[in-house]
Design brief:
Layout (H helix, E strand, L loop, with lengths): L3 H9 L9 E6 L1 E2 L8 E7 L4 E6 H6 L4 E7 L5 E10 L5 E11 L4 E7 L10 E8 L9
Antiparallel strand pairs: 1-3, 1-9, 2-9, 3-4, 4-5, 5-6, 6-7, 7-8, 8-9
Length: 141
Amino acid sequence: MKFTTIALAAGLFAGASHAEVVTYDCSLHNLEQGWISERVLLSVDAENKRARAYDVYIHELDGQPKDVKLKTTRKGEYRMTWKMNIPMSTGGTAYVSYTATLNPKTQKLNLLARFPQVNATNRPRGSGPCKVQQGESLYGS
């Protein structure tokens, strides 16, 4: 899949600088093929308890950033969750539940995919560094 579309879309959603919204551009390394995107954009507004995510799967299904649930953990990490129905190459769709844990101090992201409707033993995961994108937001203007 083309990951350059994420970069282009990120530019489309760049708006006025919001001091409370921090956007992270994360590069992930995963051990399994599929389910975990190599690049994820996250805009976090911790003060207002909201966040948005954008990756290649969200781009292909929705074409725009996805509102996700945000929780700040006791350790100060951001835990974001969202669910998607992703088409499979063999036909049909897979219901996937994502959990992203972002440490704003170390700027590291861990992303886990689960399949709650099937008894799947595999849980694809990825982790990697993030960079803060100054002046950009998935919330637009």
